[in-house]
# Entry
Amino acid sequence: MKKIYEGLTKRFRNAYFHRIPYKMRNAVKAKFCEEFSISEDTFGHKLSGGNSTTMTETECEWMEAVNPMEPAKAAAQS
# Structure
């Protein structure tokens, strides 16, 4: 079980740090916290792989699928 959790945390961190531009991370973090009804502190614990929180496959997939550029593209096309 611990190995699976570590894999999810690694996927989550890679999606957050490597896919999302630095300037857009706060907006994505706020959207994630709203979507999953968690606080920013809990988000930080999930990001660091803290023992007090659990990572789910759904949260991981959400972070991997999120595209922070979508609103900007929609505004540019109109």
